[in-house]
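Journal club prep — side note

Before the paper discussion, L.F. wants everyone to see what a predicted structure for a comparable chain looks like in token form. Sequence:
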Amino acid sequence: MASGESESGELIALVRTELATPVDPRVRAMALALAAQHPGSARAVLFYGSCLRESALDGLMLDFYLIVSDYDDAYDKRWLALANRLIPPNVFPFQYDGLIAKYAVLSEADFYRLNGPETRNVSVWARFSQPSRLVWAVDDTAADRAVAAVARAAPTLLAAAGRRAGEAALDWWRRAFALTYSVELRAERTNRAQSVVDADPARYAHFAAPAAAAMEKGARSGGWARRRIEGKLLSIARLAKASLTYAGGIDYLAWKINRHAGTAIEIKPWQRRWPLLAALVLVPRLLRGGAIR
């Protein structure tokens, strides 16, 4: 076996073990219910985000990714498939057995692509460089494909940041996440990127060398000024799309910003009637006030 294959295999083994870590039974039940909503197209369900570290889930917004075979198979409405294809992912609310969640929908092909260096869009590879769980898969092939896609994320993140001479592994991770946070519209406080690593430094130290060794040839660091422009515009486009696809999306936007930025936004009745217009009015005001960056 070539050394590159050995290094990649080490990372895949780490990712496979981490993805298989047991979750709260309620999370698994929710994932099964979510997959059941898309019979014939659901391939895998992944659980990610800050709720991974929480034991009390009531009142929290859980985060899932639903991986599907094809967008046309996943939706009854053609415009939803088109929206998912043009500006992935689509995001929807979900409730089950007293818990609330949101879930993003990606095809297997897009999930693999968006975890790799062929895209400047940071949203997927930044998230799946962090811990996640493969809660459900339709079969072993779907599970293997999910593992392979997630294993691309950390090498892509670290390669995009580039390593500075003498930089410690954890500092490399912190700086990489700080760069990705600067690309998207974020309501989190400025120390959020550091707290992601500090929540589980042993995990990131363990992943650093295999992820660095698995960085794909030709993956380029830098380009962050362009990423920031494209990322902010893409974030606004996703907010606009979510106002059409996400029931109660404007209320969720306000909840998320209030939770992370300490604001007290209240949504007016007209904003619920016209969520797209409300989002377009609200976002510039929040940018000017510094609530989101």
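L.F.'s comment for the group: The chain has a mean pLDDT of 85. Keep this in mind when we get to the figures.
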